[in-house]
Structure formats: structure tokens, C-alpha cells
Amino acid sequence: MEKLNVQVTDGVKTLEILQGDATPRKEPIKVNIEGLITAPLDYLNKRKDVIEPLKSHLIVNTSDGKIILVVNEKDHYQDTISGKLKMNPDFEKFGINTGKSRDTFELADFIKMNRYFFSDKNVAMKLVSELKNFKAKVDKEIEMSDNDRGNTRLLQNQVVESNIPEAFDVVVPIFKGQPDQKIKVEINIDARNFECSLISPDANDIINEVRSKLIGEQVVKISELMPELAILNV
Questions:
Q1: Distances in Å between the alpha carbon of 75 and those of 46, 68, 102, 127, 204?
Q2: What are the angstrom distances between the C-alpha of 39 and each of 32, 48, 64, 66, 224?
């Protein structure tokens, strides 16, 4: 074995020497997890006996729908577990309150393929039929109207408004990992080009209410599990 000449200075408490085929020493790996809103609480439930609450903290951002648990906050290799309210893809594809537009045929096809989410499938299929015939019906009513002295654009708006299908209900989870919500949805049709967008004041209210409720519940459970943990609202 090759002789080594090692000098140890004052203050050194540990000396590690690797030779030959010894496994190289590797740096610790940071734990950085991004999950659903329940992720920080789930992590704490499994690690509460090894986590020092006075060296950790929880950041709460209600407007962003996010909570972040930081463990060993002064350590370069601190653990970070983020929980975020994420929109369910089934809800997102409807494009509710996003301004996404479709023509009446596109919307009819979309509803037909997603009738599963309607509380009443018969309502869905009736809506499909109305949308498929919508433009022809509007054009016919305008043609039959005596509009020699009237405003064509005003008449077109009036006819469109009178032919817009009533609001319908869909049952769909808004956030990932959360139960279904019944939402009333309206169809907004642009009289200029007959493009449709879906709007729902109910969905907007539910999103804000559920966001505050779910985050509040998680913060309460975390504070009960680890009372000394600093909880910071940002």
C-alpha cells in the first residue's frame, strides 16, 4: 500500500481518506417536491419526528393557491415541498371564463364529445342540435324581418340574443384531487361572427371560495400537527 503523508491542522475533527476503488464521496441531494395542495401536510405526517420546527417554516400564498414547506431553512441542502392547487384538465378543456372562442359547429362537436360531464345528457344533445342549426336559423329570421328602415346590426344582435340556448349545468372537478362541482355555464355568442365562448360567474365564485377554503384547511392541519412551525403569509 502506498504510504501517505497527511498533515492535519488545528480544528479538523474528521479526516476521510479514499483509496483505489473506493466509491467517490457525493454531495447530499436537495429534496425539491412539487405536488398537490396536500403535499406539505403529507410530507410532515411522515417526517414529523425528524423535522425540527424551529429550523423550518411554511409560506402561504392564497392568491396563487400555493403553500411551501421549507425544512432546515439555513441549510444549503434544505428540503422544499410545494403544494399547489392545480386546475383539473377536464375543467380546463371547457375554456370557461378564458375567452376561448369556437364557432357554433365546433362548440356543438365539443359538447357532443363531452356530454359525460352534463348533469343531463339529453340537455347536451338538445344543445348540440340547436348549435348545429343556429346560424341558419338566425339568417332565416333576419331575412324574414322587414328591415328596410331598420339597423341591420341591431336586428342581428336582437335575433342572436333571442336564439341563445339557455344556461346548462356541467358536473366536473375544478381542481385536481378535489370532488366534482356542479357549475352553471352560459354561452356568449358574438353576433358579428357567431363565435361562442363559455362564461360562468358560478365557476369564478367557486374557484375563489374553494381556493381559500382548501388552503385554510391545510394551514390549520399543519399548525395543529406542528404548533412551533412558523407560518408566513405572503
A1: 21, 16, 52, 59, 41
A2: 11, 14, 16, 11, 16
- Please tell me the distance from the alpha carbon of residue 136 to that of residue 3, in angstroms, as a whole number: 95
Query: For 85-141, how does the pLDDT look when each residue is reduced to its tens digit (9 = 90+)?
Result: 999 999 999 999 999 999 989 999 999 999 999 988 998 998 898 888 877 676 666
70 inside domain: yes
pLDDT digits (tens, 9 = 90+) for 27-56: 778 889 999 999 999 999 999 899 999 999
What range does the domain containing 107 cover? 98-199
Cell readout for 4 is 501517505
Q: What is the CA radius of gyration of the chain?
A: 30
Contacts of 190 (CB under 8 A, 6+ apart): 101, 196, 197
Is 21 contained in some domain? no
**For residues 119 and 165, what is the distance between their CA atoms, to the nearest angstrom?**
16
Integer angstrom CA distances of residue 101 from 92, 124, 138, 207, 221: 14, 19, 19, 21, 41
Helix (H) / strand (E) containing 67: strand 66-71
Same domain, 80 and 115: no
Cβ-Cβ contacts under 8 Å for 166 (sequence gap 6 or more): none
One domain, residues 121 and 194: yes
Report how many domains make up the chain.
2
Q: Please tell me whether residues 54 and 117 are part of one structural domain.
A: no
